[in-house]
Design goal:
alpha/beta, 7 helices, 4-stranded mixed β-sheet
């Protein structure tokens, strides 16, 4: 598996934090509405399999970051899998580096929320990586939280910025309605939100938002 590492991103959405990409084949949405298929991000994503580094090489780069650094893993791509199950063995050098440096990780996954994958996500949480399970409904989001996993959810355009449904609070990503907010200045998605039962929501956006909404409906 190959990864691309950027020490200081120039992406206006993430802000100037370290970011990575993982090979295209890891993304289950790559042919059905994935935002990373949009130009020009797709051009960089296409090169990862040829020019990227190994998980150990990426871990070595992470080990050089300041203690507690916020970073965004997988601006394109998803977690590596073996037969549909998240491959924590492949991820282990990265997880060790994150734990040793107490890095704050922003990371999402669209992989199926199977029992095996829940177990792998819990292992990652034990290493300080609060993976956000990308959910299609409040029921799925609650299921993730009930299993000790952060959750995020795509919502229709015009949805409320904050809404409470039962014991769960939906909070819209602040960067969607405030121009001065980036991942670097917010960091909400890196926080452990299981106990507070806070689900971060994102309105469908980008050139492929129609395909994305069809995929989650």
């Amino acid at each position: 598996m190959k990864y691309q590492f950027t020490r200081k991103s120039s992406n206006a959405k993430t802000g100037p934090i370290p970011t990575t990409m993982t090979e295209r084949d890891t993304c289950p949405f790559r042919l059905n509405g994935c935002y990373a298929e949009n130009f020009p991000l797709s051009l960089h994503w296409n090169k990862v399999s040829d020019t990227g580094v190994s998980s150990q090489d990426l871990a070595d780069k992470l080990a050089e970051l300041p203690m507690g650094q916020l970073w965004r893993h997988n601006v394109a791509g998803d977690l590596p899998t073996l037969n549909g199950t998240i491959d924590t063995l492949e991820m282990m050098p990265i997880l060790r580096a994150v734990k040793n440096r107490q890095l704050k990780t922003i990371l999402y996954t669209h992989h199926a929320f199977t029992r095996n994958n829940v177990a792998r996500l819990q292992i990652m949480r034990e290493h300080g990586v609060n993976v956000n399970a990308s959910c299609e409904s409040i029921e799925q989001a609650n299921h993730a939280l009930d299993n000790g996993i952060n959750s995020v959810m795509v919502t229709p355009i015009g949805s409320p910025r904050r809404e409470k449904i039962g014991s769960t609070t939906l909070v819209a990503c602040p960067a969607q309605y405030r121009d001065n907010v980036t991942c670097a200045s917010c960091g909400l998605c890196a926080h452990d939100r299981v106990a507070s039962r806070v689900v971060v929501t994102f309105e469908a956006h980008g050139a492929r938002k129609g395909a994305t909404m069809r995929a989650i409906s």
